């Protein structure tokens, strides 16, 4: 079960409120237990429609509600109607669900419905609140030439809290995606003017290498081979129109879950396991991009390499566990002081920072301030308080490539060490 942590919430913001309306004491007990494990929202409970209305009227920060369809004082789904009227995203709990009821509820605008069929159902229901909260950071582009269909799909996505961008043809979609790297998912129709869905996917996958974009193809065509064609051209999934609300959401949730797992794996691959900051692999990849951007825009850029002074002596005197604590403390200081720049641990006691937009003089002043902070601080360890210093060498554009910048900065680092260490040279 996924639990949102406080770090998932922007600093200074409070978690919004969630209301769970259920008259069964047994079901409420189960929901309370699951919610306490997986939610960090302010969760409120009501066992009747009357109590639920009082709760709703007492606050204005409701993010979502889980509502029993049949309550003693609202036996015909009146509480669901009320929640939707209050514009609160609503997940419906029900003991029985007939096709006509399900379709009517989905047309009303509920997020989803969950039948009371066991523990998994309740876990799914509560975790869906977390899913809605995370969806707010996911941007989806809908490329569809039919304004009616585009509006329908957009409404479904917004019901699940996604950010939505619209495009009426493939060419507009391509421009939007290339201009906005935050677009995570593309839903594209096949038949569109100017540029069709195949051409759009081909351009993204082959010309612009947008391999991290999740693509779901859409079409009302009767060609039974169309889904295979879409996937062979680079789509992740395919959906025939018209589709049901549930099929649409299942496909989207499947795509989002896969995307998040991939991002999590990439994050692990790009993070230094000891300090938690980026590693050399990530630093090199991003640096090449930033250097190319600075060169094409003729803007300043500075590269810095840092080395903890006498780190081998720390390991020899106190042990590698203490040395690890020093590395962690140094990484934390760098992240807190220079977190807006690209920082990485690139080797044992070696760290690097890339300063796009800064000339060497300004970058050196920033680094020297960090140097003084490190010099005046200490690390608490099982062996007592340990202080340390670092030396740094800087280089700046113009330079042909990252390797040249690294080589020039390395020369300056040796100059810093020759000058007695605990200094910044460029």
Automatic annotation (TrEMBL):
<protein>
    <recommendedName>
        <fullName>diguanylate cyclase</fullName>
        <ecNumber>2.7.7.65</ecNumber>
    </recommendedName>
</protein>
<dbReference type="GO" id="GO:0005886">
    <property type="term" value="C:plasma membrane"/>
</dbReference>
<dbReference type="Pfam" id="PF00990">
    <property type="entry name" value="GGDEF"/>
</dbReference>
<dbReference type="GO" id="GO:0052621">
    <property type="term" value="F:diguanylate cyclase activity"/>
</dbReference>
<dbReference type="Pfam" id="PF00072">
    <property type="entry name" value="Response_reg"/>
</dbReference>
<feature type="modified residue" description="4-aspartylphosphate">
    <location>
        <position position="189"/>
    </location>
</feature>
<dbReference type="InterPro" id="IPR011006">
    <property type="entry name" value="CheY-like_superfamily"/>
</dbReference>
<dbReference type="GO" id="GO:0043709">
    <property type="term" value="P:cell adhesion involved in single-species biofilm formation"/>
</dbReference>
<feature type="domain" description="Response regulatory">
    <location>
        <begin position="17"/>
        <end position="131"/>
    </location>
</feature>
<dbReference type="InterPro" id="IPR000160">
    <property type="entry name" value="GGDEF_dom"/>
</dbReference>
<dbReference type="GO" id="GO:1902201">
    <property type="term" value="P:negative regulation of bacterial-type flagellum-dependent cell motility"/>
</dbReference>
<keyword id="KW-0597">Phosphoprotein</keyword>
<dbReference type="InterPro" id="IPR001789">
    <property type="entry name" value="Sig_transdc_resp-reg_receiver"/>
</dbReference>
<feature type="domain" description="GGDEF">
    <location>
        <begin position="299"/>
        <end position="426"/>
    </location>
</feature>
<dbReference type="GO" id="GO:0000160">
    <property type="term" value="P:phosphorelay signal transduction system"/>
</dbReference>
<feature type="modified residue" description="4-aspartylphosphate">
    <location>
        <position position="68"/>
    </location>
</feature>
<feature type="domain" description="Response regulatory">
    <location>
        <begin position="139"/>
        <end position="256"/>
    </location>
</feature>
<dbReference type="InterPro" id="IPR050469">
    <property type="entry name" value="Diguanylate_Cyclase"/>
</dbReference>
<dbReference type="InterPro" id="IPR029787">
    <property type="entry name" value="Nucleotide_cyclase"/>
</dbReference>
<dbReference type="InterPro" id="IPR043128">
    <property type="entry name" value="Rev_trsase/Diguanyl_cyclase"/>
</dbReference>
């Amino acid at each position: 079960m996924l639990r949102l942590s406080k770090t998932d919430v922007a600093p200074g913001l409070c978690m919004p409120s969630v209301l769970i309306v259920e008259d069964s004491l047994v079901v409420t007990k189960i929901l309370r237990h699951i919610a306490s494990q997986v939610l960090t929202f302010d969760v409120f409970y009501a066992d009747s429609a009357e109590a639920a209305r009082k709760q709703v009227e007492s606050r204005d920060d409701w993010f979502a509600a889980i509502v029993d369809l049949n309550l003693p004082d609202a036996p015909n789904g009146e509480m669901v109607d009320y929640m939707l009227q209050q514009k609160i995203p609503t997940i419906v709990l029900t003991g029985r669900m007939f096709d006509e009821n399900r379709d009517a509820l989905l047309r009303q605008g509920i997020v989803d419905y969950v039948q009371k069929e066991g523990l998994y159902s309740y876990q799914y229901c509560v975790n869906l609140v977390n899913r809605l909260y995370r969806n707010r950071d996911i941007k989806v582009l809908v490329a569809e030439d039919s304004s009616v269909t585009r509006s329908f799909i957009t409404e479904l996505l917004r019901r699940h809290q996604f950010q939505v961008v619209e495009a009426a043809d493939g060419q507009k979609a391509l421009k939007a995606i290339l201009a906005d790297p935050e677009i995570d998912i593309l839903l594209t129709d096949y038949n569109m003017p100017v540029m069709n869905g195949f051409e759009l996917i081909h351009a993204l996958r082959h010309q612009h290498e947008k391999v991290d974009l999740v693509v779901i193809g859409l079409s009302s065509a009767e060609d039974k081979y169309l889904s295979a064609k879409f996937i062979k051209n680079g789509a992740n999934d395919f959906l025939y129109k018209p589709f049901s609300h549930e099929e649409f959401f299942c496909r989207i949730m499947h795509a989002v879950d896969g995307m998040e797992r991939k991002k999590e794996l990439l994050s692990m691959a790009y993070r230094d396991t000891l300090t938690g900051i980026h590693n050399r692999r990530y630093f090199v990849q991003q640096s090449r991009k930033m250097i190319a951007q600075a060169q094409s825009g003729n803007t300043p850029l500075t590269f810095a390499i840092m080395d903890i002074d006498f780190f081998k002596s720390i390991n020899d005197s106190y042990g590698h566990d203490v040395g690890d604590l020093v590395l962690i403390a140094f990484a934390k200081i760098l992240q807190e002081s220079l977190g807006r720049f690209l920082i990485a641990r690139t080797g044992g006691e070696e760290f690097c920072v890339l300063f796009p937009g800064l000339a060497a003089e300004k970058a050196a002043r920033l680094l020297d301030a960090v140097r003084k902070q490190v010099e005046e601080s200490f690390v608490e360890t099982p062996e007592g308080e340990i202080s340390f210093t670092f030396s740094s060498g800087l280089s700046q554009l113009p330079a042909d490539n990252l390797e040249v910048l690294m080589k020039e900065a390395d020369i300056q680092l040796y100059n810093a060490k020759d000058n007695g260490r605990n200094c910044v040279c460029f």
